[in-house]
Structure formats: structure tokens, C-alpha cells
Amino acid sequence: SACRRAVQRGEGSVAAASFAAIWQVPMCRGPHGLGVELARSVLALPSLGPEARAATLIRYGNALRLTGQPGAAAEAMHAALALSRAAGDRRGMAAAQAGSGMVLTSLEGRYDEAAVLLQAALAGAREVGDMLTEGLALDAWGLVLADTGQTAACLQVWTQAAALQRAAAWRRGAGQPGGPCCSERSSSIVLA
Length: 192
What we know:
Layout: H1 2-9, H2 12-22, H3 24-29, H4 32-43, H5 50-66, H6 70-87, H7 90-108, H8 111-128, H9 131-147, H10 151-171, H11 182-191
């Protein structure tokens, strides 16, 4: 793949961009281990800049979460948040907070802590106009609501999340509405 070739050449920015471009497939469909493997190889590059490193750490954390490694996922999200804070990157901070909230919610059931992070992620994403991160944070918030027995509110939040993620995919030039909308999968589980 282009990501592996860029890693072999030591081109951090190209490897990170390639990984970002292909990340949606292993995230939503698997194999999740592939996301872990590719992210590790990109993160090992010394030429990787701080913003690209933070973005890759967020994807790495999500891959770790999806492979059932909550401790390592939390560490990756914390590292991404620290890098984003140091760089003053509000978009990166919001994405890392959303990822951390997802880890706390989906694997550890720490809803109060997740709620604080998710509210911060939502505020940050809205501030910078990042519809995808806002949708992902709402998706995680829906999990909090579902797991705490608030099914009606959960479905309402997941509907908002799906709409935001579709709009974000459309804006990025995906050519069609849709895209990485794990909210639809989550809401189908609740409706079943």
C-alpha cells in the first residue's frame, strides 16, 4: 500500500496522510489489527511532525479500542491530547477528547468521566467547525445514554451524529452522502 511504501522510504507526512486516507476501512469494517499495525509503523517514523503524530495517535487509539485494548487506547489518546494542546490545535484536541470519551464509554463504563471529555470535544469541534469530530463525539455520547438506559435520548443523539457524519463525508468530497458513519450501526443495535 502507499502507506507501507511511505514508511519504507521514511516519509512521515506521506505515511500519515496515506494512513488517514485508508483508515476508514479497517475502522468500520476491519480488520482492526491492520489499523494497529499500520499506525505503529507510521508512529515509529522520526520524521513525523507533531500534528500528524497526534492525528495518527488518535487513529491508533481507535484501532486499539476496537481490538479490545483499553489501556493502550487510553494512553494513545492522552498522548494525542498532549501533543494537540502543546501545538494549540483545537481540532486535534477535540478529536482526542472524543476518542478518550469513546474509550471510557465503550470499554471501561466510566460514564461520568466520559461525559466531561465528550462535552469538551463537542464544544471544541463546534468551535472549529469540525463536523466529523462532532458526529463522533455525539456517537460516543449516544453510547453513554444507551448504556445508562436512556434509549429515546440515545436514538435522538445518534440520529444527529449520523447526519453530521454524512454531511462531513459529503463536504470532504466523498461524492455521496454517507461515509464513516458508525452511528447507523450503533443505532441499529439499539433498535434490534
